[in-house]
């Protein structure tokens, strides 16, 4: 029997993560703990010796929730990062001057949501910022001067859902939502020109489409588009004529993204996520680079940045049974230099392989997912955890997943299902989940349980349903709608009443509300339907124990969503445990809170499924 992996190794802070290289290639930034809290660190990069780790220094000093997202300004002097308070997702934008050490709150306003819209090497001391300071539902466009810190509103938002700037930092594309859930892609030729409609993304295409980038000359748009196809294809759209050229496509899966030339913005490598990530080379000049990079590590490469000279690339590798690992790749020598592993302590333990699987749902739809078996020879009659992803318009994918490793290490078969409504498999697969929360989306999960038990992998009397956000909702549905299938359920920040969920969404989701109503239902016209799909409506039918965890500051799934199901369970005398985290939001950022939750969940699962437990 393999050694137990400590929860602190799986769910504590990484040793280092999220490296970002300065645009001139002279410095590396990354996130690592400082006094137990994640902060941004910086060290110089020597051309011959690599990163000078001895000279590493923390340049931020967060003492609370930690910093999880940052990036380099093009001037090479400022680092930009965002931070909220207690998980409320009211993100403010901050910077640190690496020369003086000065830190500034660049958006010093209460209850705002700031986001970076664009930056460019052509205007290295400027950043375009979206902020909803004047109207909580809409992000206006501001131009930030990094030298002075001045923030000037440039465009007032008339109701658009998103913006895109060209390489001269002129906002020349906007996404205008329409009442039926479709989007007009608007463009203009200059900052003073009128907006015009370039094309319309139909409502059914929205989740498989995206505006990626302007070309370097500003004359075309690179897009992911499902127009004329089921899957999202990489396309180029001529702004003058509207003519569209398909650059890459796959009949089974959506294009996930593309590596763009830093100057021309032409796509060079296209990523398409199937069971694992696949790569399509469009630019022959990088074909040997991709081959050399793939030879560095068995994982799937992630392209994280490159220097202005385009000689050094920063590459990460994602592998199922090991830590995220990062390299600097030198194009001249076609060789890589190891930077670090995010969680090197994992190498001391036996990890499990994540295996793709598929099955046919009861209505004939093919469903894909992943199973992670406990290490060792036993692959039959196992206790199992159905780990349901959130979103739901996202998908599970192959690679390192701490929960999958945790379940497998504790003796459970971990089952992850990309049920209908998940993205990545084309627009028809997403549409198959419309208005199917608690319906056919849940049927797919039940069919997955039937499949794994029919294969003999899982013991049908010892299956748990577990998940966060939509996955938490699915866990509550499993307990209330199909209690005979599951032995127990774990709900993390999951909604219990779809009507109250939709009535309390964050205000800045308003531009895309038609899409949300299309997928779930309209609380004004579908109140009875939404109640019928709400676990709260059938709380008295629950017969299995539940563990419910909630962040008090969650702006997406409010605390009331957990409180009302807990109250119903208490009134009905149904066995449950409730964990409320007063300093968290939609998920648990602080390592001490994560450890507290996973300790409780591990004890809960061991009690009802009979798995292993770390004291």
Question: What descriptors fit this protein?
Answer:
615 residues; alpha+beta; Neuraminidase; Rossmann fold; 3 domains; eight-stranded mixed sheet; five-stranded antiparallel sheet; 36 strands; 17% helix; globular
Helices and strands in order, then pairings?
Elements: H1 7-11, E1 17-21, E2 27-34, E3 37-46, E4 50-51, E5 57-58, E6 70-72, E7 78-83, E8 92-97, E9 103-105, E10 114-120, E11 123-131, E12 140-145, E13 151-155, E14 162-165, E15 171-177, E16 183-187, E17 196-201, E18 210-214, E19 220-225, E20 233-238, E21 244-248, E22 255-260, E23 267-273, E24 277-281, H2 287-294, E25 300-306, E26 312-318, E27 325-330, E28 335-341, E29 354-360, E30 366-372, E31 382-388, H3 402-409, E32 413-418, H4 427-431, H5 440-454, E33 458-468, H6 470-481, E34 488-492, H7 498-503, H8 513-519, H9 527-532, E35 546-551, H10 559-572, E36 576-581, H11 591-609
Parallel strand pairs: 31-32, 31-33, 33-34, 34-35, 35-36
Antiparallel strand pairs: 1-2, 2-3, 3-4, 3-5, 6-7, 7-8, 8-9, 10-11, 11-12, 12-13, 14-15, 15-16, 16-17, 18-19, 19-20, 20-21, 22-23, 23-24, 25-26, 26-27, 27-28, 29-30, 30-32
């Amino acid at each position: 029997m393999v050694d137990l992996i400590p929860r602190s190794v799986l769910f504590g802070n990484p040793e280092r993560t999220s490296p970002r290289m300065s645009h001139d290639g002279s410095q590396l930034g990354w996130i690592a703990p400082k006094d137990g809290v994640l902060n941004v660190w910086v060290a110089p990069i020597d051309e011959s010796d690599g990163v000078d780790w001895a000279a590493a220094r923390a340049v931020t000093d967060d003492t609370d929730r930690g910093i999880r997202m940052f990036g380099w300004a093009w001037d090479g002097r400022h680092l930009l990062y965002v931070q909220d308070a207690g998980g409320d997702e009211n993100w403010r934008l901050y910077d640190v001057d690496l020369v003086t050490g000065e830190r500034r709150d660049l958006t010093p306003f209460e209850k705002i949501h700031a986001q970076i819209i664009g930056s460019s090497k052509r205007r290295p001391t400027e950043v375009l910022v979206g902020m909803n300071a004047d109207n909580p539902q809409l992000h206006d466009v501001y131009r930030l001067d990094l030298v002075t810190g001045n923030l000037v509103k440039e465009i007032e938002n008339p109701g658009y859902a998103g913006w895109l700037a060209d390489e001269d930092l002129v906002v020349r594309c906007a996404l205008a939502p329409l009442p039926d859930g479709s989007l007009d892609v608007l463009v203009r030729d200059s900052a003073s020109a009128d907006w015009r409609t370039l094309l319309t993304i139909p409502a059914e295409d929205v989740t498989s489409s995206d505006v990626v980038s302007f070309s370097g000359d500003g004359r075309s748009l690179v897009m992911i588009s499902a127009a004329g196809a089921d899957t999202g294809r990489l396309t180029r759209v001529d702004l003058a004529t509207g003519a569209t050229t398909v650059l890459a496509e796959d009949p089974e899966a959506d294009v996930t993204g593309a590596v763009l030339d830093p100057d021309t913005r032409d796509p060079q490598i296209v990523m398409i996520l199937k069971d694992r990530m696949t790569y399509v080379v469009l630019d022959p000049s990088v074909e040997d680079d991709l081959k050399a990079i793939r030879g560095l590590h068995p994982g799937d490469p992630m392209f994280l940045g490159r220097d202005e000279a385009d000689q050094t690339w920063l590459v990460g590798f994602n592998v199922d049974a090991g830590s995220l690992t990062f390299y600097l790749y030198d194009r001249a020598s076609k060789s890589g230099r190891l930077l670090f592993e995010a969680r090197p302590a994992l190498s001391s333990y036996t990890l499990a392989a994540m295996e793709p699987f598929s099955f046919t749902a009861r209505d004939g739809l093919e469903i894909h997912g992943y199973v992670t078996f406990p290490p060792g020879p036993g692959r039959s009659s196992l206790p199992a955890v159905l780990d349901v992803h959130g979103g739901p318009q996202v998908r599970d994918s192959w690679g390192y997943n701490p929960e999958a490793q945790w379940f497998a290490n504790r003796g459970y078969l971990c089952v992850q299902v990309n049920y209908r409504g998940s993205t990545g498999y084309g627009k028809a697969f997403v549409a198959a989940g419309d208005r199917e929360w608690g319906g056919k989306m849940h049927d797919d999960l039940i069919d997955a349980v039937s499949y794994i038990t029919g294969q003999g992998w899982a013991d049908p009397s010892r299956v748990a349903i577990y998940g966060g956000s939509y996955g938490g909702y699915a866990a509550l549905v499993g307990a209330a709608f199909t209690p005979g299938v599951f032995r127990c359920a774990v709900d993390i920040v999951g909604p219990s009443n779809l009507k109250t969920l939709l009535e309390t969404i964050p205000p800045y989701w308003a531009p895309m509300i038609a899409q949300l109503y299309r997928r779930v239902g309209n609380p004004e016209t579908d109140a009875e339907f939404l109640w019928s799909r709400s676990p709260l409506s059938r709380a008295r039918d629950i017969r299995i124990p539940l563990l419910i965890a909630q962040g008090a500051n969650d702006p997406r799934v409010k605390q009331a969503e957990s409180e009302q199901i807990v109250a119903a369970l208490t009134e009905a005398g149904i066995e449950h445990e409730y964990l409320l985290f007063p300093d968290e939001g939609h998920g648990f950022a602080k390592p001490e809170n994560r450890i507290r939750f996973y300790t409780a969940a591990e004890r809960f699962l061991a009690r009802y499924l009979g798995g292993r437990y770390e004291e």
